[in-house]
Amino acid sequence: MDRYERILSLHRILKTSRYPVTVAKLQDELECSRATVYRDLAFLRDALMAPIVGDGDAGFRYDSDEGGRFELPGLWLNSEELHALLAAQQLLSRSGGGVLSSALAPLQSRIEKLLDEHSAGKQWPVQRVRVIPHRGRRMDEHAFRNVCSAVLQRKQLAFEYRARSTDERTKRIVSPQRITHYRDNWYLDAWDHERDALRSFSVDRITNARVLAADARDIDEGELDGHLAGSYGIFSGPPKGIATIVFSAKAARWVADEHWHSQQQGRFLPDGRYELKVPYSGARELLMDVLHYGADAEVVEPVALREQARSLLMMALSKYEG
C-alpha cells in the first residue's frame, strides 16, 4: 500500500471508528511500521488539518465535535476506485452512439484529468476495457441536450415527434418529468398538455426540440410510478395482469439472475425449471423477451397472453414452411 492509499485508509478508519484506534491496529490495517503510522498521523493532522486527538497509549480518533464534518480536501480515490472510474470513463466515452460522450464532455474531461493526476505517469491499458453497445439508436444531439435541460430546469418542452409504430408526425408541448435510460436507449416521461395525460417518448424520435419559458407541471412521484413504472418494460399504463412464464432448467440459470420488473416474483420448481411472474400492461415487449428464449420459455398464464405467444410463433413458423 503506497502513502496515498494509506492516508485515505487512515482517514476512513478514524472517521468510522467510535472509539480510539490503537497504533498496533493501525499498523495491521495499513500494513506498515509503527514509525510510518506516526508519520501518516502527523501528515493527516498538520498538512490536511484533520481533527485527530489521542496518543500512542490510548489510541487515536477524530474529535467528536469536528470529525463528523471533516473530509479530505479534493477527491481521494484508492486504486480499486480509480480502476472502476477508469472503466466507467470508457463506458461514458464509447456508449450511446457518441451522444453521451459529447453532451457530457466537461465531466469526461474532469475524469480524464483525475486519472492523469493519480496515475503517476503510468499508461493505463484502456484497450482492455471493452464497451459493445447493443441495439442503441442514433439520436439528435441537440434534441437530447434540450430534453435534459428541460427535465432538470423544470421547464416545458416543445418538439416534433414521429411515432415509430404509425410513422405519424405530431407537434407536442409537454411538461417533462424525468428522462429514463432503458436498454441502451433514452426515453422522456412527460405530461402531454394537449392530450392531458402522461406519455413516454423515445428521444431518438424527437426533433426540433426547444425549451420554453413556461414552468413545467410537476406530477407526483407516486402517480408517475403508478402509470409509467407499474408494468413490465418502458411502455406506460397500470398493470393489466400478471404474466406467468416457465423457463427450462437450462434457461433457469440465466433467468433467475435477471431483473425483469421491480415487482417480479420467481421460484425454482422441483424439476429445476424456473417460474417467473411479472406485472404487464402491453404484451408486445414482454412477448419479445419471452420469445427470445425460444423453446426454453413457455407462457402459462393468462390464457389470452399464451394465445398471443402461440399466434406469434405460428406466424413466424409460416415464414419457413415450403
Automatic annotation (TrEMBL):
Coiled coil: none annotated. InterPro entries: CBASS_pafABC_assoc_protein, HTH_11, WCX_dom, WH-like_DNA-bd_sf, WH_DNA-bd_sf, WYL_dom. Residues 243-313 form the WCX domain. SUPFAM superfamilies: Winged helix' DNA-binding domain. It comes from the Bacteria. Pfam families: HTH_11 (PF08279), WCX (PF25583), WYL (PF13280). Residues 143-211 form the WYL domain. Residues 6-60 form the Helix-turn-helix type domain. This is YafY family transcriptional regulator.
